[in-house]
Amino acid sequence: MAKIIKLRSYLTGALLCSGMLIANPTYAANSVQQQQFFEAISVLCGKAFAGKITAGGSEDDGFSGKELIMHVRECNDTELKVPFHVGEDHSRTWVITQTDTGLRLKHDHRHKDGSEDKVTMYGGDTRDVGTANMQSFPVDDESIVNFKQNGLDQSVTNVWQMMIEAHTFTYRLTRENRDFKVEFDLTKPVELPPVPWGHE
């Protein structure tokens, strides 16, 4: 028995040294793809790109017919802030954060005076590995409550997707009877837009 215990201790020590024994294997497995995705966006830091609606556009959606610009503006090891400018509307900033379980996407909405919109910081966390090129963010409970409080029941099944490839970044929103997509051309950086409302 003593030999068995000693052998188990030896194997455990060997596995720890080799990095094969991982306390949280789910996060370790997920973090590879999600870290690659996060870093792919980080590489664009300081640059802005023009986009166009490629699905789900309509005359009254507030986006069609306007200049669409994404700006990878603020970057650190755990958080990216990417303002999404719609014409003269500088109210939106995507906030992508690394968490202990994956990635989180939030939408920071501000008024022109910098104050928070009543519908702000909504979004969700990843629930699966995703890929180095695509991550999905199903709506979280906090956002569902906010949507319902503000009469946006149609948004309680939202799923946001972000995709990054060699030449294109895509922002997509899907729910029942809605599939909205904007694609940004990463091959042609554009002039930097104004500071988003509520930020310095």
Structure characterization notes:
This protein has 200 residues and is an alpha+beta fold. The protein has a single domain (25-190), classed as Lipocalin, CATH 2.40.128. It is built from 3 helices and 11 strands, in the order H-H-E-E-E-E-E-E-E-E-H-E-E-E. It has helices at residues 2-18, 25-42, 141-149; strands spanning 48-55, 68-71, 74-75, 79-86, 89-98, 103-109, 122-125, 134-138, 159-164, 168-175, 178-190. Strands 1, 2, 3, 4, 5, 6, 7, 8, 9, 10 and 11 form an 11-stranded antiparallel beta sheet that branches. The longest helix has 18 residues, at 25-42. It is globular. The model is unreliable at 1-30 (pLDDT under 50).
Entry keywords:
200 residues, alpha+beta, Lipocalin, eleven-stranded antiparallel sheet, 3 helices, 11 strands, disordered N terminus
Roughly what is the average pLDDT, rounded to an integer? 87
**Helix and strand sequence:** HHEEEEEEEEHEEE
> In angstroms, what is the radius of gyration?
21 Å
Number of strands: 11
- Give the C-level CATH assignment: Mainly Beta
End-to-end Cα distance, whole Å, is 66 Å
Q: Which architecture per CATH?
A: Beta Barrel
Summarize the structure.
The protein is an alpha+beta fold and 200 residues long.
